[in-house]
Fold this sequence. Notes:
The chain is of the alpha/beta class. The protein has helices at residues 2-18, 41-50, 73-88, 116-132, 150-157, 194-203, 235-239, 253-276, 280-291, and strands at residues 54-59, 92-93, 137-142, 166-170. Strands 2-1-3-4 form a four-stranded parallel beta sheet, sandwiched between helices. Strand 1, helix 3 and strand 2 (92-93) form a beta-alpha-beta unit. Helix 3 (73-88) packs across helix 8 (253-276) and helix 6 crosses helix 8. The longest helix is centred in the C-terminal third of the chain and has 24 residues, at 253-276. It is globular, with a radius of gyration of 26 Å.
Amino acid sequence: MRKNCRITLFLLLAASLTAGRPAQAQAPQPKLSVHWEELTGPDFIGAIKRAQGTCVLPFGIIEKHGPQLPLGTDLLDVRYASLHAAEQQYAVVFPEYYFGQIFEARHEPGTVAYSRELQLALLQETTDEMSRNGCKKILIVNGHGGNESFLPYFAQSQMAKPHDYVIYIDDQRSPRAGAGGPPKKTTNDQHAGESETSKMMVARPDLVHQERSGTESGADQHRGTLPAGIYTGIWWYTRFPEHYAGDGAAATIELGQYQMNWWIDAIGQAIVAIKADDVSLRLQNEFYEKATHPLDTKQ
């Protein structure tokens, strides 16, 4: 009887010591970085599953950006916007990529211009490798105006032979005129001007030297004589020989914040739409199959 009392007292004491303590919670799941290069091997597997096979390739360039902005402006801006969008609508973001088209700036210091053959081959092998690692929906976010022809051509060239993934191109960098936000002060705002300088004030304000904006001319020199509709590769140098088109002195942090938030939101919406897309890969596979025997394709 005395032994049973001791056991009862022990149990009561133990209960009193644990009373009020919260139940031990399960260890929280590790936060998955959106940076491809920051993930461990095991975490990468979880990240691809969480992203539903959706990966982002921010596409920049290395070139002169007026006298006031860093050479990597396009790369820094597009990565800032892509990473913030991927954090809101989870996707895995590929590391720095700047191997695009920039022949028109080869006369300026610091420009890195790879051959056209290498540009296409490297991008193809990069997306192939991304696919091999589970990225079946690859969103290339363009941060450089000089890629506006190159990237759609690359996407179109995917029809040449079968791929088990889809390439999507997002070329929205700034809201259209009249879309709201702080009014712009300039009309010529193509390269290193009001908008790009404003956005860099958000992405990397430490690299902006706005006081240097007026040391070079960003005005259109109008040196060409060809009629409208006739294209030549020297057109940009003909109009903007200093590789500067606009006036960075007009930039403001308010304009930069508005445009950057707009860009982040636009990329986020693209990620949502791409995750939900169950049509493109199916039709792409259908196309590949029909392309192997075109005479059997019903008209």
